[in-house]
Amino acid sequence: MAEEEFEEYLFKIVVIGDSAVGKSNLLSRFARDEFDHNSKATIGVEFQTQVVEVDGKEIKAQVWDTAGQERFRAVTSAYYRGAVGALIVYDISRKTTFESIKRWLDELNTHCDTTVARMLVGNKCDLEDIRDVSVEEGKSLAEEDGLFFIETSALNSTNVNAAFEIVIREIYNNVS
Ligand code: GDP
Ligand code: MG
């Protein structure tokens, strides 16, 4: 009997962005289909792993959460080490979080090389009534910097899986 060959794919993906944009909830929605209204519960969790299938291959996405480090403006280099994908998140209802994206991109570029698959994520798209960043603004920033772009809601699940899956597929295409 022929021996089957198994390839293993483990992709480290980091989630970055200002405090309270919804990073931890995007992760818990993706990994466990859960949402925390008071969000304290996920503090201390380093990463969660979720298996995704791409082209019939099982891929383990190891998604890292800052666990609140970003409040001190000091996400450590260990956080970025080995990352092959990144979600850079802002809150569509708070312009200041969008204005911080450049700084997060600089930080990402300092720690990781340019081959990292990068997705700009405008989270909380359920808050249309108090939108402060237009879809066009998000799109054009993403185009300028060569990022993918998507708007999500961790609250009602809009595009959360898609955000991660597009990044995972891009990483897969780069390595296979
Ligand atoms: P983090 O600091 O970036 O990890 O943000 P959290 O995931 O802790 O979320 C911060 C706050 O925003 C919490 O009160 C969440 O309940 C809320 N939140 C997160 N995602 C969404 C979303 O998609 N829509 C809305 N309306 N609120 C959200
Ligand atoms: Mg958090």
Describe this structure in words.
- It is a single chain.
- The protein is built from six helices and six strands, in the order E-H-E-E-H-E-H-H-E-H-E-H.
- By secondary structure, the chain is an alpha/beta fold.
- It has a six-stranded mixed sheet with strand order 2-3-1-4-5-6, sandwiched between helices.
- The protein is globular.
- Guanosine-5'-diphosphate binds at residues 19-25, 37, 39, 123-124, 126-127, 153-155.
Could you write a compact summary of the structure shown?
By secondary structure, the protein is of the alpha/beta class.
The major beta sheet can be summarized as:
6 strands, mixed
By oligomeric state, this entry counts as single chain
Number of strands: 6
Q: Which parts are unreliable, with pLDDT below 50 for 5 consecutive residues or more?
A: none
Bound molecules: guanosine-5'-diphosphate, magnesium ion
How much of the sequence lies in strands comes to 15-25%
- The general outline is globular
Number of helices: 6
The largest sheet has its strands arranged as 2-3-1-4-5-6
**SSE order, one letter for each helix or strand:** EHEEHEHHEHEH
GO cellular component, one term: plasma membrane
Membrane topology: Lipid-anchor
Subcellular location: Cell membrane
Protein name: Ras-related protein RABA5b
Fold topology:
Layout lengths: L8 E9 L5 H10 L14 E8 L2 E8 L12 H4 L4 E7 L3 H5 L1 H11 L5 E7 L11 H11 L2 E4 L8 H16 L1
Parallel strand pairs: 1-3, 1-4, 4-5, 5-6
Antiparallel strand pairs: 2-3
This protein binds guanosine-5'-diphosphate (GDP) and magnesium ion.
